[in-house]
Specification:
The complex is a heterotrimer.
Chain A lengths: L1 H29 L5 H19 L4 H24 L10 H20 L20 H23 L1 H11 L1 H6 L4 H22 L1 H4 L5 H16 L4 H21 L2 H18 L14
Helix pairs in contact in A: 1-2, 1-5, 1-6, 1-8, 1-10, 1-11, 2-3, 2-4, 2-8, 2-10, 3-4, 3-8, 5-6, 5-8, 10-11, 11-12
Chain B lengths: L7 E12 L2 E12 L3 E5 L6 H9 L6 E6 L2 E2 L5 H7 L1 E4 L11 H8 L5 H13 L2 H4 L11 H14 L4 E5 L7 H16 L3 E5 L3 H7 L2 E6 L2 E7 L5 H10 L1 H8 L1
Parallel strand pairs in B: 3-8, 3-9, 6-7, 7-8
Antiparallel strand pairs in B: 1-2, 1-4, 4-5, 9-10
Helix pairs in contact in B: 3-6, 4-6, 9-10
Chain C lengths: L22 H20 L2 H26 L8 H16 L8 H25 L2 H21 L1 H4 L5 E2 L10 H23 L2 H11 L1 H6 L4 H27 L1 E2 L6 H14 L5 H16 L7 H15 L3 H6 L18 H6 L9 E10 L2 E11 L4 E5 L6 H8 L7 E6 L2 E2 L13 E3 L12 H7 L9 H5 L3 H21 L14 H13 L5 E5 L7 H16 L3 E5 L3 H7 L2 E6 L2 E6 L1 H5 L2 H8 L2
The chains are: A mainly alpha, B alpha/beta, C alpha/beta.
């Protein structure tokens, strides 16, 4: 049992961490927390199942297409729900617009895809029991994603430009950086990362329209724990959440696990509002 | 108005701009010729920063005209302005703290070809040996003065034809202020026009060719920087009419 | 044409029925109530079901409206409290855990449990940014469904359990409808009372101008907890009634779609309105019934509506109904302050000895913003605080008003210690202020904005206001009267019913001063009040400030307009780099060579 707690805990944790990174990627260039993060994860599973099981495409086509489609959804989000409300960020209208887009995505999926969970294909037929691919795949994907992001941010000028926009949008604009293009690009990137979460976790979560809302909440907890915009914090927070949740699940049962996670979430928010690794709040006056 | 003389690099005419409901500039008119170093002075809240932002495209405006090299700046983004050779170094030495000095400079040349970009960074650093030595340190680890030099160097990467600087002296020690101003003077001799917003009036006058004073959103004084009695006229512009009589009396 | 200089008489506003505003404001509610009461005469059981459901939804939405519409907190998962109420009532009435309670007692218990839950879920909203609260309520909605499904011994799991069956006469279709309608009407009346009281204005102030709310002594946590309790109780009772109406409940009855309906009903209706969200609730309840094919797509339609409203019609239905504010305002309005009104407004003498600051040191990180500042502001004097950019003027104001805690130094006001920090307690000490960028409630009228300044003068509590008891009515009358006087004093009385976001920038500056006068301040802090004003307006502002000080108020004026400073100040302190560079009378300062140099930066 111990092995399966660890295996499923790390797997779920990796999925939550990836959704947390999706939130962060969008937040970095726009200061917007978008409710579409979880939906992108849901779509990763649904598109994967649609393309590979229903349409019978091989993995080499199915995965890139899924990523592309979700990147497209990310870009649409930027244009429809983020750009129009960026001017009045302090009114928090983005909460409403991104929620609306998230619900549109969810409802269209429910009606056009299915309201029942649909199977997701096995990709490699590798591993058994605790080493089953459905467990290690999300963890591996999370590791690859964070490595790729670290490379992007540390070694490439375009990654530096992302960081610059995230650190000081105004100064970046004054310097002549293409801040708008970079923001759209970050939403596309977030779409792909969310898709990876859903795709790699497809065998665990299945292709189910209601996953979006669940991932929205459980993917946000790592962000709240780690501090907004902190990817490393999100990974630590995500894995910790996954392990805690699965351990509670196996030992005291599902209901109490959910309640415990929720209570923990509120307590952390009250005790460390900026997250355990976050920066202090800015001045108001 | 007749067609602007060819040497006028920047012409601003009747410019109105502000933030939301608050209009800060109520019709500003000024011009800068190629290779000229112009100081823009004025008390707090006069609209100096607003003017620079409006010209460089950071702050949209609709009323009035502003032309750079006879191309309208209205609706132009800072990126397009920078490509045209109009570069704005904003106030408060806001460099990117989490990027190295080198990366800060590379970012300034984001849309240049790679080789060109590297060459320009080396070129910009020749003016500031102090920070050239710290190329690989983080922007955030520099002192305020070094950050200001880095910010100016970022502007130089673009090889601007007009460089606008917003209070490069703020928070700097007098020695460093002189260093930065010396670089500006040097730039002018190499043909780059400079628009310098400054609080340190005497230092600014020492390097400038001409001076504009802004008060309450309007140009209230324009003069040659070496004119007799200029300080007196500036006091008037700053403190209002009756103040000077008391200062003199 | 300039404004009428006489005080405009407005008898209707002084009528004792201040709670629901004018009779004309209550009319639409009465019309809806009358129509609802006629329904049993013409409708069938189907319509009774729909109307009962709409009443139940409105009971919840009326409370949620205070949170979302008035306090601006984005509670998107309120279906969770609805579910908690439904399950609590059903479980207690069925007696499968504790001995069975009578149905009405179970209903009451549902209200209590949901109210408590409402506060727990709301806790993060007391401290954190909007998105966190939205997430918490969303998370709570997720959890409640999971618990309802999983806790089979109590909730019956996926199979569900039967709702409480109410005794006669509420056991019939129309009987239950009558009960729900009655409670809905009661909730409307109570929330309207609260909304139009000092508590309602304070809620809107925390939504649109939270820093100003704090400076006016409004304690956001207390206020929000009160509202969370009420909204939770309303949601719980509504849930219990819903369980009765359904006769049988399963977790499926409490989908997130329902939560969305509640939330969007408020936004469609318009923030800060009661009538709007009521119409929104009716619309969203009836919509799927009217167009059956829509039923499957209802969430889609709600979400699309939400997007459209936020992007294209942020004011919602309430804006469509706000005919008054479509009248064109005259372009050439003139602000004509009437200092005479100050006599009545600032009549009672305050025991004042002024503000003393000694050796105040404040640094942010390594940067010293204020470095050993001594400052003394005498009652009845205008004290100018000037200096170049970054010299620490506004920082000094923020230290006095408690936003920054200095590392060293002492402050006393009128002889007693003024503790550092705690901006919310400043208003009670008679420290009022204006802001560099006016912080006003754009969606509220000019009069309401000024009345916010008098929030802490009220004596009646939250419940008294909700039930519109005499003490609350007295508070309202007194605050309104003072606000009118204050508006007259600053010269904005002709605009009292205009929505504040329609005013010009200069008018907002005077509006902030009027708000600052509400408490009869001992010390008035003005942060660049002349910025953006015309020369003529600056003159009038100067005369107004002078007149205010002559009534014994100490005024600390941060300003760049040298003319104004030298014209009206009794004393001037010049700051440079956080230190006092000079102090003295205007004549002394003008001749001070160092000051002139500091300004010219030599």
């Amino acid at each position: 049992m111990f092995a399966s707690i660890i295996a499923s805990g790390l797997a779920m944790g990796a999925i939550y961490a990836l959704i947390g990174i999706t939130y962060n990627t969008m937040f970095a260039t726009s200061r917007v927390m978008s409710f579409t993060a979880g939906q992108l994860g849901m779509l990763g599973g649904v598109f994967g199942s649609l393309l590979m099981l229903r349409l019978g495409l091989p993995l080499v086509l199915g995965l890139p297409l899924t990523l592309l489609l979700c990147a497209g959804v990310g870009i649409v989000t930027e244009f429809v729900a983020v750009r129009p409300v960026l001017k009045s960020l302090d009114q928090h209208l983005y909460v409403l617009t991104t929620l609306a887009v998230a619900l549109l995505i969810q409802q269209v999926t429910a009606i056009e895809w299915s309201t029942e969970p649909q199977p997701f294909p096995r990709l490699f037929e590798l591993g058994r029991d605790a080493w089953d691919e459905k467990y290690w795949l999300p963890v591996a994907t999370c590791a690859v994603t964070i490595s790729a992001l670290e490379f992007l941010y540390r070694r490439t000028l375009i990654g530096r430009a992302f960081l610059a926009v995230a650190e000081d949008n105004f100064a970046a604009r004054a310097l002549g950086l293409p801040e708008r293009t970079l923001r759209v690009a970050s939403y596309a990137m977030a779409g792909a990362i969310g898709a990876l979460a859903g795709f790699s976790g497809g065998q665990l979560l299945l292709a189910f329209f209601a996953n979006g809302q669940l991932l929205n909440f459980y993917g946000f907890i790592p962000v709240a724990l780690g501090g907004l915009g902190n990817n490393r914090g999100a990974i630590i927070g995500g894995l910790a959440l996954g392990l805690f949740q699965q351990a509670a699940n196996f030992t005291v049962g599902g209901i109490f696990a959910s309640v415990a996670v929720f209570v923990l979430f509120i307590v952390v928010l009250l005790v460390a509002p900026q997250g355990l690794f976050g920066a202090p709040a800015s001045r108001r006056v | 108005m007749p067609i602007s003389a060819p040497e006028k690099l920047l012409t601003v005419d009747g410019l109105h701009a502000g933030y939301g409901k608050v209009e800060v500039l109520h019709g500003v008119t000024l011009h800068i010729a190629a290779g000229e170093l112009v100081a823009l002075l004025g008390p707090n809240g006069a609209g100096k920063t607003t003017l620079l932002r409006a010209v460089s495209g950071l702050l949209p405006w609709t009323v009035g005209t502003a032309r750079f090299d006879d191309v309208s700046l209205c609706g132009m983004s800072p990126r397009e302005a920078a490509r045209a050779g109009l570069v704005h170094v904003i106030e408060g030495h806001r460099v990117f703290n989490h990027s190295s000095v080198n990366d800060n400079l590379l970012l300034a040349g984001f849309d240049l070809p790679r080789r060109e970009r590297l060459a320009r960074v080396d070129e910009a650093l020749t003016s500031f040996p102090e920070i050239a030595a710290k190329r690989h340190e983080l922007g955030g680890s520099l002192s305020g003065g070094q950050q200001q030099m880095l910010a100016v160097a970022q502007g130089l990467v673009r090889r601007p034809r007009l460089l606008m600087l917003d209070e490069p002296s703020a928070g700097l020690s007098p020695v460093l202020v002189d260093r930065v101003l010396a670089v500006l003077a040097q730039l002018r001799t190499s043909g780059t026009a400079v628009l310098l917003v400054e609080q340190l009036v005497e230092k600014a006058l020492a390097v400038a060719d001409r001076v504009y004073a802004l008060a309450q959103g309007r140009v209230v004084l324009t003069a040659d920087a070496h004119e007799q009695g200029l300080t007196h006229r500036l006091e008037q512009a700053y403190f209002g009419q009756d103040a000077t009589t008391l200062i003199d009396g | 044409m300039a404004m009428d200089e006489r005080v405009q008489s407005a008898p209707s506003h002084d009528a004792p029925r201040a709670s629901l505003g004018d009779f004309s404001k209550g009319l639409p509610f009465l019309a809806i109530l009358a129509l609802s009461m006629l329904l049993p005469l013409i409708g069938n059981d189907y319509w009774a079901l729909i109307a009962t459901r709409a009443s139940i939804y409105w009971i919840l939405v009326s409370g949620l409206n205070l949170i979302v519409g008035f306090a601006g907190q984005l509670a998107i998962g309120y279906v969770a409290l609805f579910a908690v109420g439904a399950y609590t009532a059903s479980v207690l009435a069925a007696g499968n855990v504790l001995p069975a309670l009578p149905p009405f007692a179970a209903l009451g218990a549902a209200g209590v449990v949901s109210a408590a839950m409402g506060v727990v879920v709301g806790l993060p909203a007391l401290r954190l940014r909007t998105f966190y609260f939205a997430m918490t309520t969303l998370g709570f909605a997720t959890i409640v469904t999971q618990v309802a499904l999983g806790w089979q011994s109590v909730t019956g799991g996926g199979i569900g359990l039967s709702g409480p069956s109410l005794p006669a006469p509420f056991d019939t279709t129309w009987g239950l409808y009558g009960l729900c309608l009655g409670l809905a009407a009661l909730c409307t009346w109570m929330t309207a009372n609260l909304a139009y009281s000092r508590f309602g204005r304070a809620l809107v102030a925390t939504r649109d101008a939270d820093v100003a709310a704090e400076a006016n002594g409004i304690a956001k946590p207390h206020l929000l907890i009160g509202v969370f309790l009420f909204a939770g109780a309303a949601a719980g009772v509504a849930g219990g009634l819903f369980a009765s109406l359904q006769t049988y409940i399963t977790p499926d009855a409490f989908t997130f779609d329902l939560s969305l309906l509640f939330f969007i009903a408020v936004l469609i209706g318009g923030r800060g309105s009661i009538l709007g969200p009521l119409l929104g609730t009716l619309l969203l309840t009836l919509l799927p019934e009217m167009a059956a094919p829509l039923a499957a797509w209802s969430t889609f339609v709600y979400a699309a509506l939400l997007l459209i409203i936020v992007l294209l019609m942020p004011g919602g239905i309430a804006t469509l109904l706000d005919f008054d504010n479509r009248r064109v305002l005259s372009d050439n309005r003139v602000i004509l302050p009437q200092p005479a009104a100050l006599g009545q407004l600032l009549a009672a003498a305050r025991p004042a000895t002024g503000l003393e600051m000694e050796g105040v040191v404040l640094s942010f990180g390594g940067v010293t913003a204020i470095d050993g500042l001594d400052l003394s502001v005498q009652p009845g004097q205008v004290h100018g605080l000037i200096g170049p950019n970054g010299s620490g003027k506004t920082t000094t104001l923020n230290v006095i008003s408690g936003y920054f805690r200095p590392q060293q130094g002492q402050m006393t006001l009128d002889g007693t210690n003024l503790p550092t920090g705690l901006p919310v307690l400043r208003a009670g000490r008679g420290v009022c202020r204006t802001f560099q960028t006016p912080r006003i409630i754009g969606a509220a009228s000019v009069l309401q904005n000024v009345m916010v300044g008098g929030t802490i003068t009220g004596r009646a509590g939250f419940l008294e206001a909700m039930l519109s008891l005499p003490r609350s009515l007295r508070d309202e009358r007194a605050i309104r009267m003072r606000a009118r006087l204050a508006l007259q004093a600053v010269g904005l009385h002709a605009l009292e019913n205009v929505r504040a976001d329609r005013l010009q920038h200069s008018e907002l500056r005077f509006l902030e001063i009027a708000r600052g006068l509400m408490l009869h301040p001992s010390l008035l802090l003005l942060d660049e009040p002349a910025a953006g004003l015309s020369a003529e307006e600056i003159k009038r502002l100067g005369a107004l400030i002078k007149a205010i000080s002559e009534h014994g108020v100490g005024v600390l004026l941060v300003e760049h307009h040298a003319d104004l400073i030298f014209e009206i100040c009794d004393q001037i302190t010049v700051l440079n780099l956080g230190k006092v560079l000079a102090r003295g009378t205007p004549a002394e300062i003008r001749m001070h060579k160092e000051v002139v140099s500091a300004y010219l930066g030599a």
